[in-house]
Write a structure and sequence with these properties.
This protein has 170 residues and is α/β, with parallel strands linked by helices. 36% of the residues lie in helices and 21% in strands. The N and C termini lie far apart (50 Å).
Length: 170
């Protein structure tokens, strides 16, 4: 019983900790130029990262079935989206890895989330940044370079993300 509990705790810790370091599936490191792509949110807004240069951009990659993602998304909405949604210098895109528009609309309604969800059906956007592990957050600075990365969900690490974002949007 103790061994099983230890294994479950170890797996949970490994899946929920964040590091933003190489080895966690990241294909890029802090300071690298962020790859550009275009996404269309479930409400029809087209976000072209090339046209958003000069703004602070946050990408969140998730899946509807992912436990840590489901823990993170309400925190993302409350602590980031609700705070910065009207800031003209901020762009958030929440990309549903392997999900289509209808699935994301249903998920958004069921979870009562008002985030700017966009489908990434074939993992095309995700594949530019990582090859595994979600949730994954990437903050791109005004200069188009990656300023911050995290993987998994941990309240302390997410607080660091919030601090970084706040400092960049001052």
């Amino acid at each position: 019983m103790k061994k099983t509990l230890f294994i479950l705790i170890a797996i949970t810790f490994a899946m929920s900790t964040t590091s933003g370091q190489e080895g966690d599936g990241s294909l890029l490191k802090t300071g690298d130029t962020a790859p550009l792509f275009t996404a269309e949110t479930i409400d029809g807004k087209v976000i072209d990262l090339a046209k958003e240069k000069g703004k602070v951009i946050m990408l969140t990659f998730f899946a509807t079935w992912c436990g840590p993602c489901n823990l993170e998304l309400p925190v993302l909405e409350k602590n980031v989206w609700n705070k910065y949604r009207d800031n003209e210098d901020f762009v958030l895109v929440v990309l549903g890895r392997e999900h289509d528009r209808e699935t994301l609309k249903e998920f958004s309604a069921t979870k009562k989330l008002n985030l700017p969800f966009a489908p990434d059906i074939e993992r095309k956007a995700f594949a530019l940044y990582a090859d595994k592990n979600i949730p994954r957050n990437v903050i791109i600075g005004r200069d188009g370079k990656i300023a911050y990365q995290s993987m998994g969900f941990d309240a302390e690490e997410f607080a660091k993300l919030e601090e970084k974002l706040a400092s960049m949007l001052r």
